User: Fold this.
Amino acid sequence: TAVLQQQRGQCVHGDSLTILQSPEFVSFQKGDWAISGEKIPDLVALTMGFSVQEDLSWPGLQAGPLFQRPRANVLVVVRGVDSLALPQSVASYPLENPVPFTLDSVAETIHSLFAEDTPVVLQLAPSEERLYMLGKANAVFEDLPVTLQQIRARLSQDGSVLASLPLNSLSRNAEADLLFLSEVQVLHDITALLQRHRHLAKDHSPDLYSLELSGLEELSRLYGQDSPQYRDATAILASVLQKFGEDVYGLYGNSAVVEVVTVKTFEAPLTRKSRSILESQQISNPGSPYNLAYKYNFQYAVIFNIVLWLMIALALAVIVVAYNLWNMDPGYDSIIYRMTNQKIRMD
Assistant:
């Protein structure tokens, strides 16, 4: 299990895209190529092997094998951070034009192509109590705390991150501190649920996770970026994200892409309609005439190659046979004409 790692610590400055984990067949090149925030969904789609409407002219991602796809893509957006020290990462790129974005287009593509396999699609923003789930996520993450009240109650239960984290200057009673710790708890619970349901990482459908964390933004607004609370929270989040990426990468058999986007502030607010667990459906309308996408599965590549090369072989055979028939001498090359010729001579 080869993982691209850097021996020395790497600092990721604000408005950056960092690749925490990536399989060998998804090739990210190291460089300072900037990528626009609005192109992040296209980048996620390309890493999962999906097509996009407009070509992504960005040299950071190289074309990989046609028939190998990662089993999952995990995107974590951290708001309000100026610098985040991640000790091990694959590559880091500056992020320009940090406009709000969602992975709705990627989620819809996964749902349309793998509707029968019910892949895991989880989009979560704890601070805004925003949750969107599809497929097997409804059953796996049904017990995941969503509202701030549920998450804070989870912090007081057994197995809470409060027992293992060095809080230092952070307080268990301050609202902003609890918001940040709640987001850390959500990351811990997601990996715990995935470890409990390891079969999800072994199916044929890719999974998508999109998490948005804004606890550091609240700490920065309340205490300031030079405060000990903000510095302690930054160190905690960097350590937690590193372990979160390693755990998810290992659970999916070293076949997952984990990205971290750090944005100090978005240029425009994002308004989005949320869905509750009960509102999401497995298949909205399987008989809809507008769903033109075919049902894709991982046997498609095998069937495609069998049909393609069989057609090429048959076409070559027809050409060879036609050429030989065209240049045939009936008197010498054909037994039928030869027998008929002899019979005519005898008569």
Q: What stands out?
A: The two ends are 82 Å apart (CA to CA). The chain is about 35% helix and 15% strand. Strands lie at 10-13, 16-21, 35-36, 72-79, 83-86, 91-96, 121-125, 130-134, 207-213, 256-263. The first helix runs from residue 40 to 47.
